[in-house]
Specification:
This protein is α+β, with helices and mostly antiparallel strands and 207 residues long. The protein has a domain of 144 residues: NADH Oxidase (3-Layer(aba) Sandwich), CATH 3.40.109.10. The chain contains nine helices and four strands. α5 runs antiparallel to α6. The two termini are 35 Å apart.
Length: 207
Amino acid sequence: METIQAIKERRSINFFQADREIPDSTLRELLETSNLSPSSFNLQPWKVIVVKDPERKRALRKCAFNQPKVEEASAVFILIADPMGVEENLERVLDSWEQLGYLKPEARDSSREMAKNLYGTEESLRRKIFAVKNTALFAMNLMISAKGLGLETHPMDGFDEEAIKKEFGISTDKIIPMLIAVGYLKEGVKLLPRAFRRPIDEFTTWI
């Protein structure tokens, strides 16, 4: 599917085929494509839990205000924004840049300090915003990639974050920006027309 077509046809689906699974190979391809998302300093501060097991989806549904699509979707992705992505990934990023010729060895120390100054301390609001912002880029890439693979998605903001952390063993310093249900549109369901979108001149300033 062409990129523009995928963007125009992507919808947030509420009704999934509950008895249809997504092959693991397709889920891996989806994740690999999503992982090409841009990120600040290439630090990729995201983690993902792919929930496929029916019992675990049932537990997740309880944490998501009992929304049926959590159980009906073939899989639900718990997206985790990790403020510690700076410390976890920075040296590997710098290694890659050196190996590929983006960074001269003598500039490594200054690049490391630049990253640490840009994204603040581990507990800072700036660091949390960094993690969530980049995970949101991953999330949008995931939904467009899913459409290209013939899958439907629904990003979900209605859930109890602390309950999910407790149920799935996610540490308290992490942030869950959203869940994304992934699967196939339920047979016989006809989507209503796309709802209200603001005209671009309402939110755009040309200078």
